[in-house]
Amino acid sequence: MKKTNFDRYLEQQLKDPAFAARFKQAGEAWDVALQLAALREQAGLSQQQLAALLKTSQQQISRLESPGYEGHSLSMLRRVATALKARVRVVIEPEPAEPFRVAEEPTPYRTKRRARETS
Question: Model's pTM, two decimal places?
Fold first, then answer.
């Protein structure tokens, strides 16, 4: 598949560790938002109806389902999950180990054979 300009731009931006960390974090928030919205819709509830069940506002449900929102509390996620007959599962795992890298590429080592001296 041919890379688009955006693919090349993103690839370049992801080389910056700070950008890569923010990008990953945004992806995690996006996942939470999509899961909450999908579970609510699967239950056949509007945001307003879910808010009434939780005794909160529709705006709060909208915020929880927003991909840019990162203020999810574990207690609120549990309340939403209970109302939607689901469960919350949090996984915290270590980052994969970075492979050992050398600053420079190794120089190939070559030796010349000396001609054998004949006696």
Answer: 0.61
Burial degree of 21 (CB within 10 A; 0-12, 13-18, 19+) = exposed
CATH of 5-83, one of 3.40.50.620, 3.40.630.30, 1.10.260.40, 1.20.1250.20: 1.10.260.40
Radius of gyration of the chain (CA): 26
Residue type, 18: A
Task: Give dist(CA 6, CA 11) in Å, integer.
Answer: 8
For residue range 61-96, list pLDDT tens digits in order.
999 999 888 889 999 999 999 999 999 998 888 878
